[in-house]
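Hey, I'm writing a tutorial for new members on how sequence and structure tokens pair up, and I'd like a real worked example in the thread rather than a made-up one. If someone can provide the structure for the chain below, I'll link this post from the tutorial.
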Amino acid sequence: MKLCVFYVSVVEINPITKIANENKKQGSTKSPPCFLFLYIRKVGAVLILNHQKTMKNTTSSTLQADLLQFRGTEQYYKHFTGLIYTDGISCVARVFKAYWIIDLVASYQSKKKVRQEPFQVYSIKVKENTAIVTITDGNDNILASQKIEYTDLPMEELQLYCVNKVLMLPSEY
């Protein structure tokens, strides 16, 4: 899979919709070559095209740069445990099929040492399909650590913030 992030103005979305509607009217049964996730922003929209290709040519640094496009959030999502998360976290979970990250952060909120910290930093370091998750208070004081036996997360490192029980990407802070 290849992840591409593009900014487009809201005006540019209409031709895309028009083409899709015209294909539908003509009875085209062919599915488009990508899945489309649309995030409406105040200025425009972020289109994340999840191509049906391999991610071999996509580097971890490219994916990190793509995630930096998230600034603030337009919508909050609620985990069944009460943890709140942002558009950026929702995108990571959907695109990388990594809902386990939200579950992991939510599960650590039950630990007193972690729960007492209003600012938590979750660092996920991936190496050869295994990961180490380290939770700190933002000042390099380790609150907890866990080894993940298997993950297919395509990034070498991912950092998340949990601020007052709201999980977000660092760029959304």
